[in-house]
Amino acid sequence: MSTEAKRNDSDKASANYNEEKVAEVKHVDLNNNVQARSVFNKLPDTVIFNVLHRIQNPLHGISKTDLLERVEKFTEEKGLNDRLDIFRKGALLAQNQRDFESIPELTEEDKEVIRRETTRMICLRSQSCS
Predict the structure, then answer these.
(1) What is the CB neighbour count within 10 angstroms for residue 89?
(2) pLDDT attached to residue 98
């Protein structure tokens, strides 16, 4: 079994467990630090990590198959079937931006554009463009 397959299986099991645990938390007033801290202190670290990670990236934990099925359904509903390929690539990239080099659906040309854009953004942030 590949590392990615193991990670996906682990993510699925973790996601199911985490969703059950998170569902136990009815309502937490995040403005009330004492209440929030007491609730989060009772949750396992993996649950906290997954909750925070999902806040940062709502596509985290969705299997590739499910993600691509959602993309296909979306493009059908919106009449964008002719753009299905670009939506697939976009969803996969949005799910795992940092590891875009390992997304087989992206062509080398796609990856080169992403590399160039990433370099450009770093350059703009540091204002040391040449």
Answers:
(1) 17
(2) 85
Q: How far apart are CA 97 and CA 114, in angstroms?
A: 10
pLDDT digits (tens, 9 = 90+) for 58-82: 887 899 999 999 999 999 999 999 9
Q: Residues 6 or more apart from 64 whose CB is under 8 A from it? A: 8, 92
Ranges under pLDDT 70 in the chain: 1-55, 121-130
Q: Check if the beta carbon of residue 61 is closer than 8 Å to that of residue 15.
A: yes
DSSP labels, 9-52:
HHHHHHHHHHHHHHHH-----TT-HHHHHHHHHHS-HHHHHHHH
Closest CA to 88 of 109, 108, 73, 78: 73
Contacts (Cβ under 8 Å, ≥6 apart) of 12: 61, 63
CB 74 within 8 A of CB 46: no
State percent of the chain over pLDDT 70: 49
